[in-house]
Please model this.
Amino acid sequence: MDLKHLRAFLMVAETGNVTRAADVLHLVQPAVSRQIRLLEEDIGAPLFVRERHGMVLTEAGKALVGYAQRVLLELERARTEIVGTATGEVRGLVTLGLLPSTVDILSSALVTAVATSYPGIHVRIAIGYAGTLLQWLESGDIDAALLYGAERSADIQSTRLVEEPLWVIGPPEAKLRKNKPLSLEQLSKHKVVLPSTSHGIRTLVEHACAVTQVQLTISAETNALSVQRALVLGGHGLTLLPPIAVADDLRAHRLCGAPLSGPAISRTIVLSLPTNRPTGQHVRLVIGLLTQITRQTIDSGLWMEGKWLMD
Model:
C-alpha cells in the first residue's frame, strides 16, 4: 500500500470529485484515478461509487478513511520529531482536544505561547464534547485533551485541573442574579433546554434530579453549545451551563445567570493523557503551557467561577 494512494484516496473522499482532488494534489486526473484503482486492488474492494453528483464512499471506503487519516497523521508526527532531533530543535505536531466551553478562552493564548516558546512545534486544536474527545484520545487522533472528570477509561490518565459550578442561564428578561441562587425545584417550573443525553453535563443534571426527585420540563435538546445558546436567546427555556461557556454573553448582559442550589452541581475539568502510547517531549511542553494558561485564566478571573485544583 503506497502512501500516495492513501493521500489521493483521502482527497477524493474529502472533495467528492477526482478532478478537484487532482487540482489540490497538483496531479493530472488520470494519475489520481489510477492511484484509487491500485488502492482498490490492494484492498480487494471498491472504495467509491460514481454517482451523478460525484464520488461517494462505499462501506469499505468509509471504513478505510479513519485508518488512512491515522497512518498519515502518525507519519507527519514522526517526520517532524525526527527533523527536530537532527537539528537539535524541539519540533513536532501536537493535537489537543478542547471542550467547546473552554476553547475560546484558552486557544488563542496557547497558540501564542507555543509560537513564542517553541516555534518548531505546530499545534492543532480539535473541538468536541467529552465523549468524542475521549474516543479520539484512545484512538490516537489527539495527543491530550481537557475532559470532564466523569469520563473514565483504562487507557487514559487524568489530572484534575478546574472545578466549576453549573448556573441557570436565561435571557435578560429572566432576571437571574448571581446573588440569588435558584433551586432545581424552582427550575422545574420553567421549560429548560439541555444538552443531549451523551453530554457530561446532562449526566450530572439527571443524577441531581434523581436524587432530589425533581422532574424538569425539557423543551429541546441539542449537542451543540451554539444551538443551546440560541434556543435560550430565542425564548425556548432556561438552561444549565458553567458560566465560562457563555462568559461574554453574561458580561455583555445578553444573557443572565444564577448559581444552581438545592443541590449545587459542579463539574471537574481534567487534563487527560493516553497510557497506551508514549507522550513525546513536544507534547509534554505544550501540555505544560496549557496548564499554565489555564491557571492564569483562573487567577485573573477570566474563567468565571472556576476553582483551581492542581497543586
In short: The longest helix spans residues 59-87. The first strand starts at residue 48 and ends at 51.
